[in-house]
Amino acid sequence: MLCQNCKKSEATTHIKRVINGEATESHLCSSCAQNSGYRDLFDDFSFNLPGIFSSFFGDTALSLGESRLDRCEKCGCCFDDIIKTGIVGCADCYDKFYTKLLPSIQRIHGKAKHSGKIPVIRKEEVTVKEKTPEEKIADLEAEMQKAVAEQNFERAAIIRDEIKKMKGEN
Amino acid sequence: MNNESNCNSVSDVVLSTRVRLARNLRKYPFPARLDRDEKKTVCSLIKDALDGENLDCIDMETLSPVEAVSLAEKHLISAEFASNGTGRSLLLSKNEDVSLMLCEEDHIRIQIIESGLSLEEAYRKADRIDSLIENRLTYAFDERIGYLTQCPTDLGTGMRASVLLHLPALSRKGAVRNLTATVAKLGLTLRGSYGEDGEILGDIYQLSNQVTLGISEKAALQNLNSIALQIVTQEKQARAVLIKDEDFMDKIFRAYGILKSAYKLTSKELTNLISYVRLGAAEGLFDIPVEKLSALNAELQPATMNTKSEVPLTRSQRDIKRAERIREALG
Fold this sequence. Notes:
The complex is a heterodimer.
Chain A: E1 13-19, E2 22-28, H1 30-35, H2 50-62, H3 79-85, H4 91-96, H5 98-109, H6 120-128, H7 133-149, H8 153-169
Antiparallel strand pairs in A: 1-2
Chain B: H1 3-13, E1 14-23, H2 36-49, E2 56-59, H3 65-73, H4 79-83, E3 89-92, E4 98-102, E5 108-115, H5 119-136, E6 141-142, E7 146-147, E8 159-166, H6 168-173, H7 176-185, E9 188-192, E10 204-209, H8 217-242, H9 246-261, H10 267-282, H11 290-299, H12 302-308, H13 315-330
Antiparallel strand pairs in B: 1-5, 1-8, 2-3, 3-4, 4-5, 6-7, 8-10, 9-10
Helix pairs in contact in B: 3-12, 9-10, 10-11
């Protein structure tokens, strides 16, 4: 069987992965397996698998010739580039190709909704639209308490200043 | 069992903890689409954002290959980062517990290394550095898929946490394969380290979180911590059985004997012998701190030895020096 990534050499490495109970298998040649980080086991512990990632798209994605013309305005990356390299050009690419990328993101991560840390500035942007100033202050106070509990005093101080500013404005 | 002995017993098995955060700046394309000058600009922005942190800034272009590989041997940088320094920088704390690879696969890779099992503390340090950068620079972030990374496998928290485990007894029992399959179902990855060509040296394994999207940092760390503790318990039980095996005891003592009297030692041989002696030390057969053995093994990796030597050493010279240093350290 030929390598699923380069489709040129004989596949010699069989990789079976189980993520959230869903098994995926790949057959790679030794050079693609090595490029995917399977040889140097102690190298950075991220799962850098461009070959695997692009294999998630399958042949159908590669046949979409028109996707070459549709390029990201910021970095010039097209969807074909992402499929071929397994890496994304810039933050704007995620917006532009979001619906095309989502199925493969879900195959890697299972459910695809972020949970966890959110940059403070972003959090304001998100909450501004839906919450009253009082609710926002309450949220920030809760977050400040959490930061204090975690002994993250720098962060607590930043939040405290934000609260002060918001109270001043009302 | 009191807390202290419990903690000691964990660090017999858990050698170290690492937490890594992947971050990118909103304004710039990801590193693969940056030229040298743009990379340098990104590096200096991040360096400036952390100017109060007293981190050394190392321009990777100025390092010799040996110096770069030595940093990789100490796991402060990735092998890929060591192999190509163009436009890249490394921010490193004095005691080497904090390192930031700039313009590696992502603009920023914050890495914290702690000894023993210390996930919460390692994350706390990484999170603090992350917040400092975030106060000055705007990150690439999306409410739906979290921190945006060059490779979609890191989306979400961008956090990869790992613990380095010494599992000689479970390896002998042939239990690691099963364990690997079990932890995979729990969203974790267990794999051998220090290896080339799939060979696992020194019974060292790395347990890390696999999924970064849809699970918070806290939940991922708790999950990893609790599985690590369960593996520690299993390894301890297997060790208790193993040291009753006379042939295995003989191997431990022979390994100690070779380390104490060899004239030449390759780094691979050292790693394998140290595995036996570390187990013996943890079981109280030898009076050597387990941490000292890990430190010796790190110090005696080839490129790290070469950076400390005034003249470049041949392989054979290194093997002799390595054996000398071990004889001296083990008295």
